[in-house]
Amino acid sequence: MERKEIDQKVKDFLVSEFEIEESVVVPEARLREDIGIDSLDFVDIIVIVDRTFGFRIVPEELKDVVTLEDFCNYIDSKVNQ
Amino acid sequence: MSHRVVITGMGIWSCLGKNKEEVAESLRLGKSGIGIDPARKEIGFHSTLTGIVPRPDLKPYLDRRMRNSMADETEYAYMAAREAFEQAGIDNEYLLANEVGILFGNDSTGKAVVDAYKRMDEMKDSFLLGAGAIFQSMNSTVTMNLSTIFHLRGINFTISAACSSGAHSVGMAYLLIKQGLQDVVLAGGAQEVNPIAFASFDGLNAFSKRMDDPQRASRPFDKTRDGLIPSGGGAALVMEDYDHAVARGATILAEVTGYGFSSNGLAISQPASEGSVKAMMRAMSDANVTADEIDYINAHATSTPLGDKAEAEALTELFAGKKAIVSSTKSMTGHECWMAGASEVVYCILMMKNRFIAPNINLTEVDDAASRLNFAFEPMEKDLNVVLSNSFGFGGTNCALVLRNYK
Questions:
Q1: Chain B residue with minimal CA distance to A19?
Q2: What is the pTM of this model?
Q3: If B182 and its partner were Cys, which of B17, B176, B246, B271 is the partner (CB 3.0–4.6 Å)?
Q4: Does B61 contact A at CB distance below 8 Å?
Q5: Is residue B252 part of a domain?
């Protein structure tokens, strides 16, 4: 999957399903502090990522993910490994 | 010191309407909210009859996280609570500055539990159930969600007492306020209406089979009654200490003056007139009124052969030859189960404030056991001062409430 497509799909679900303002969803935004994703939201993200990208997140693998760009890098590494 | 307990706000979401005005109109016209859910036949129900309750759109009011944690009945209860707080003049600013409690009757959240389990079975991974599943799947789904949304910081729990759940929640709120432990409590009842919630109840062969004539199927006290019709929704009441309500300039709708309870201690599904009589007598004694003073009785009667007969016998023992007019609004709503005791308080107060009695529709041939009672066969214009509302449930849990109009 093209990286551009990954970025767009992540942005789409954050805006449509998590109702995050589109202007906040930028690569450098921090998931927790800037976008407002908390631990319960992460549980829903596992469900949406499974549906959208076809793999199951292992929560421990997200420990170094801080920004949206980190998160998209993580997805990229899983779908294109 | 004993405190007077009043109601200053009401909200309702039911098969009779999506707010007080719609519901009052349906009650006044004797309009049934019963219809058919064809899907029930396909999944093995013996009766496809149900109250037709619309799903509210919560997106304009609540964010994703809040909506995601709500079961069907939580959504109905939220709409009722919004309406009740609005009528009571209680806004977000008030809720942030004052302690308000919550007590709701709810005795299942079947669809949420089954949906979560089905997904688990399919995906073999609990991480894929989503964050909302747990908060939808507990019986306290209504109280845990509404207390969060409305910032409630007083008493907070759910009452599970079968078909008396909603009534006991009003009764418990009444006791807490009467004792001076709470100034304001949001009390109510909620009931999911989906097939999963009612499959096992259908399995008792307890539902009416009059599927060719849905709006005439619920016939409490009629000789030809053949079972109840499941229904539901949400009902909410802002209950308040009288002095507190007066001090903040609230409009008082009615006063809760009596709460009576009892348990039959008999077989699990066996109605008993003795227990019903005991609950009604306790409620009237608490309210310091006699049977002669009751203007209207909102009967529990659900349209089952045995249940209605037992209640008719109990009502006859206490009210034969008295002025009290009797009707069962379940003739229009079906049986709103966990919500019924609270919704019927809303229906009674709508009648009091609008000066009418809602009819016991479909009562064409009165059961012999009920022949000495005065029924409202048609809508009646009537000033109501004191009313009694009955709720009885599986396991023999009985509740009676006495309400007084506030003029």
A1: B64
A2: 0.96
A3: B176
A4: no
A5: no
